[in-house]
Write a structure and sequence with these properties.
- The complex is a heterodimer.
- Chain A is an alpha/beta fold.
- Chain A folds into three domains: 3-145 and 197-322, no CATH class; 148-187, no CATH class; 325-444, no CATH class.
- Chain A has helices spanning 3-23, 29-38, 41-66, 69-81, 83-90, 93-109, 116-134, 140-145, 148-162, 172-178, 181-193, 199-203, 222-231, 239-255, 260-263, 268-287, 291-317, 319-322, 325-339, 357-364, 410-417, and strands at residues 347-350, 371-373, 387-392, 419-426, 438-444.
- In chain A, strands 2-1-3-5-4 form a five-stranded mixed sheet, with helices on both faces.
- In chain A, helix 20 (357-364) links the parallel strand 1 and strand 2.
- In chain A, helix 16 packs antiparallel against helix 17 (291-317).
- Chain B has two domains: 2-30 and 85-430, no CATH class; 440-563, no CATH class.
- Classes of the chains: A alpha/beta, B mainly alpha.
- At the A-B interface, helix 9, helix 10, helix 11, helix 12 and helix 13 of A face helix 10, helix 15, helix 16, helix 17 and helix 20 of B.
Chain lengths: 446, 564
């Protein structure tokens, strides 16, 4: 790689590292095990980051050999500026594992003469095993293929149609052709695959119409490069290669049931590739002094850089808007407990509404003997022991989805439940439905 | 060749059949826009005036939304022959929906090989959007049909006079049928004339590019259409502008960037890190690309269209396989876009059709983009060609090849059966009570028959503008309705309850909240009421009767209470 390219990569990576340190995001659930037992959190991050860099280097070599050196360079840059790549090594190491595995799979097997269909079948089995057994995710598509829902729907649809008072009577056989579990199961399966082709999540997360909680995968100006890249697919004979990559990522999408951007982690490879083709071709025309390329290349480059800067700035300003709030809540609870001489208390109650509290406790506190991990309904709790309560404001009352917990005064808790509030904090997302967004750490009988 | 024609006629015949069959039953009852179009057709047919007494208007004031009147004019023959009912009101949409398929076929002939033409045309004829919008009275569907006619003429403009005629007439009637076309038509013409994709492929930008015979003849067409459509722009233009002000993205979504990022910044446009222009461009681009997104095409229903007549029960505008195959079509289109001008025109067609929707608040809005779905269908057709060609070329074993085609055909045939069943039967259950208020169809005539023996009729119904359902189902004399024009709420001002509802008291009909305890002492009245009531309490009063009116699903939707 030329020096300029290395410098550009270092600048981008430098910005991501600066942001990572600045945010100092607590460990995610999947980081806990490794961070607690084997490495420290930051050591783990450095390792996942290094693995990702090695993989990118392999992709660079592969694309350089198979297509073009400049295309390979652009591909690396496009991947590096993607916030999804950043969040993968920073928070979700298992996504990096997936990327590593898939990359090896593609890079090692693509040169083999084995029929692609066998590779795809192998990938389906491995992907299912990884997501189902290791990540404990129940694929919606697999559920649909099991035809259980379809069977129920056949009955439901017949019943509903037959209950109509004045209806068009289509022949029973005509209806039966499609009102059977096989067709409806097929329909359900395909309709679970259609959401994979989601331009809004791929390119428009910054201005998403449903205000979906997700990471930006690509900045919106990159969709123009994506469409422009599609123009040249046939010409550079990348169609089959790309189809193969998209198929693998679609399989992974179908096998997972997770946050939407995590389901798209493998998709960033083919998408980045098409975006890179668009940029590469535009640059080629720029060099050939085409008037439109001279206008659009600087414009689109500026907009992509602006998108990157704006998103990094936004992530820095509102990390809780973009990132999962649950590790943040745990970070808050345990840091507050740590500050409170918790060893002097007989019992420490920490909510388990939002995840594996015991694992977080072991990470932050190490020895969790007098901790209870459960949601507490405070009014029924009249014991005389000295206790700490760490949870959501709603847990001091009773779950109520309709109640506006923001209006519930924190000092009401203090005055009515005989506790001393050690600390409170507001979180952005409603991660404990019906219990409010106020975190409270309070002490009782002490 | 002859066989092809027979198959084409057969496909068109089947398409027409499923578009007109059972229009009285599905959708179960009429929605209020349909009722307005139908009633105004009835009014125009009998008096030459709309419900407000305007003589042969270009636009119907209707609910102060100034609907283009062409749909009602086109419906007059059906209303005259069949009387005012759901079928006669919807027939124009069904017939023109089928005619548009014929023009789609003619366009497809230029894009796909003869061997795939008819099977693909058959598949496209039953895409959910095509069937759904043809079975409801949408002026936008009429407009889309004319737009397609115009596009067919325009794609073959140089061939002969007939194509020139079809271009001008098609586009002009499209403009007279629906608001969106007023922006889409000039835009598609301008884009095709100046061909920006070809322009950016040129090495140098020269003045010569803009001065040639095609550009000049294209501009003449544009001018002719502009002049002939002038009358419609003079009628109610202020109200159209007001509507635009209410829904335009520039006003409604300002300051575009997340508010939190703009805190403490006096002038958002000067923000360096979160400049509104970046986000505004993102929103506008997103609005355009949303019409290419298979997820949207294949079934995602956004909040702002939920419970509206434009939603297809449990489906997207395309069926699921179609939404995926669309991607292959898109790649096919883009791969050939530099080479063939007709491919570029398809893209311009989509961009121009999206333009009216892009500048409004909503991200993806099927109704506002209806002119563009036929272009998307052409892309889908290109996708199907890619798939079929792939199978034909790459599967060497003949048995396997036949099996593959058999499986694919079976899937599409089953999809078509599902779509028909879904649209004609299941949607009645699924959409019941949303935009199809039950009870009016069943009870309006009964109310009319009871009307003459009572002094006053109290109406308590949750449906906005519900007077139109009474007029429609009672086939109320248009002269009587026109005589109420001075009682109607003024455009831009609120109606009786200050809630935007345009209901008003007329004749014996008085709108008020149901209050039996207060009203039971009165005599000689009728209540039309939707809600809970105590039957025994009512029947305790002397001279009372209760008529319970079911709708398509429920037993009691509306109740008519009479007291002598």
């Amino acid at each position: 790689m030329r020096k300029g390219m290395v410098v550009l990569c270092l600048v981008i990576l430098g910005i991501w590292w600066w942001l990572s340190i600045k945010i100092n995001y607590p460990p995610s659930e999947e980081q806990l095990t490794f961070a607690r037992n084997v490495f420290g959190l930051w050591t783990l991050r450095i390792i996942t980051f290094s693995i990702l860099i090695v993989i990118l280097r392999l992709w660079y070599k592969f694309l350089e050999e198979k297509f073009d050196k400049n295309l390979a360079k652009i591909f690396i840059i496009v991947l590096l500026i993607s916030p999804l790549s950043w969040v993968s090594w920073y928070i979700y190491p298992l996504l990096v594992v997936k990327l590593v595995f898939t990359s090896f799979f593609v890079l090692s097997f693509f040169k083999l003469k084995t029929k692609k269909i066998f590779l795809i079948i192998a990938f389906i089995l491995i992907s299912y095993g990884f997501n189902h057994f290791l990540l404990k995710q129940n694929s919606v598509v697999i559920n649909k293929i099991s035809l259980k829902d379809a069977k129920n729907e056949v009955t439901t649809r017949f019943n509903r149609e037959d209950s109509l008072k004045d209806k068009i009577d289509l022949p029973f056989l005509f209806r039966r052709f499609v009102y059977n579990k096989y067709y409806l199961g097929f329909r359900d399966t395909i309709s679970e695959i259609v959401p994979y082709f989601d331009f809004e999540t791929w390119f428009f997360q910054e201005v998403h119409p449903n205000r979906q909680k997700s990471m930006v995968i690509f900045f919106w100006p990159e969709i123009f490069l994506f469409f422009y890249g599609l123009v040249f697919l046939k010409k550079i004979k990348a169609g089959n290669f790309l189809f193969f990559l998209f198929t693998l990522s679609l399989i992974d999408f179908a096998m997972t049931d997770d946050l939407i951007f995590k389901r798209f982690v493998l998709t960033i490879i083919p998408l980045s590739f098409v975006v890179s083709i668009g940029f590469w071709k535009l640059a080629e025309f720029y060099r050939k002094k085409f008037w439109a390329a001279k206008l659009f290349l600087p414009l689109v480059t500026f907009l992509v850089i602006y998108g990157f800067v704006a998103n990094v700035s936004d992530l820095n300003f509102r990390p809780d808007f973009w990132l999962d709030n649950r590790p943040m809540a745990y970070g808050y609870f345990f840091n507050e407990i740590k500050k409170s001489n918790y060893l002097e208390f007989e019992k420490i109650n920490v909510t388990n509404l939002i995840g594996p509290t015991n694992k977080y406790c072991e990470y932050y506190i190490h020895n969790c003997d007098n901790f209870v991990f459960d949601s507490f309904y405070f009014e029924s709790n009249e014991k005389k022991e000295t206790q700490i309560y760490a949870g959501f404001i709603g847990e001091f009352f009773k779950r109520d989805e309709r109640r506006d917990w923001n209006k519930t005064q924190k000092n009401y808790v203090e005055s009515n439940f005989g506790v001393r509030i050690l600390g409170t904090s507001e979180i952005r997302d409603n991660i404990a439905s019906g219990f409010g967004q106020t975190l409270i750490v309070a002490a009782k009988n002490k | 060749m002859k066989l092809n024609k027979i198959i084409l006629i057969l496909v068109l015949g089947i398409s027409l059949f499923f578009r007109i069959y059972g229009l009285e039953k599905a959708p179960a009852s009429i929605n209020f826009d349909e009722a307005s179009l139908g009633y105004n057709a009835y009014s125009l047919a009998n008096t030459g005036r709309d419900e407000y007494g305007n003589f042969l208007p270009f636009s119907l004031r209707s609910f102060n939304d100034f609907k283009p009147a062409l749909y009602s004019y086109v419906s007059i023959p059906f209303v005259k022959i069949l009387g005012l009912n759901q079928t006669s009101t919807r027939l124009a949409s069904a017939v023109f929906g089928t005619i548009s398929l014929f023009f789609l076929y003619l366009i497809l002939k230029d894009f796909i090989a003869q061997k795939w033409l008819l099977p693909i045309f058959f598949i496209l004829s039953f895409e959910p959007w095509s069937l759904h919008y043809s079975r409801t009275a949408f002026e936008s569907n009429l407009s889309a049909s004319f737009f397609l006619m115009g596009m067919y003429g325009w794609l073959n403009f140089g061939k002969n006079k007939l194509h020139k005629f079809l271009t001008v007439v098609g586009f002009l009637l499209s403009i007279y049928s629906y608001h969106s076309a007023r922006l889409a038509v000039p835009l598609v013409l301008l884009l095709s004339i100046f061909d920006p994709i070809k322009l950016i492929s040129e090495k140098k930008l020269t003045f010569k590019y803009f001065l040639n015979k095609n550009v000049i003849s294209g501009l003449v067409v544009l001018l002719v259409i502009f002049v002939l459509s002038l009358p419609i722009f003079f009628e109610g233009k202020n109200l159209v502008l007001r509507r635009f002000e209410q829904t335009n993205v520039f006003k409604q979504m300002y300051p575009f960037a997340p508010n939190e990022l703009l805190n403490n910044i006096k002038n958002p446009w000067l923000s360096l890190k979160s400049n509104p222009s970046y986000y505004l461009l993102g929103i506008l681009s997103g609005h355009v690309f949303s019409y290419f997104s298979p997820k949207n095409l294949g079934g995602l229903i956004y909040d702002w269209v939920e419970n509206s007549p434009q939603v297809i029960s449990g489906m997207g505008m395309f069926e699921w396989i179609g939404a995926i195959v669309f991607i292959f079509g898109l790649i096919n289109l883009l791969s050939n876009i530099k080479k063939y001008s007709k491919y570029r025109i398809i893209l311009y067609w989509i961009l121009a059709s999206a333009a009216p929707a892009v500048i409004t608040l909503n991200w993806y809005h099927p109704l506002r983009f209806l002119n563009g779905y036929m272009a998307l269908e052409i892309i889908l057709a290109l996708g199907l060609v890619s798939v079929f060609d792939y199978i034909a070329k790459n599967i060497k074993n003949n048995y396997l090849k036949i099996l593959s085609f058999f499986l694919i055909s079976s899937v599409f045939v089953l999809n078509i059966i599902y779509i028909i069943n879904n649209e004609l039967v299941y949607s009645v259950w699924d959409n019941n009570g949303q935009y199809q208020p039950g009870g009016f169809k069943e009870g309006a005539m009964l109310l009319k028959s009871l009307e003459k023996d009572h002094n006053i009729i109290y109406i308590d119904s949750p449906h906005a503008q519900n007077y139109i359902f009474f007029w429609f189902y009672q086939q109320r004399d248009p002269r009587e309705i026109q005589s109420y024009q001075n009682l109607r709420p003024i455009p831009g001002k609120d109606g009786k309850y200050n809630d935007g509802n345009l209901i008003f008291d007329y004749g014996k009909y008085v709108y008020k909240k149901y209050d039996w305890l207060k009203d039971r002492n009165k005599n000689n009245f009728i209540y039309w009421y939707t809600g809970d009531f105590k039957e025994d309490e009512i029947l305790r009063e002397k001279g009372t009767k209760i008529y319970k009116l079911p709708n398509a699903v429920y037993d009691n939707t509306v109740v008519i209470i009479t007291k002598d």
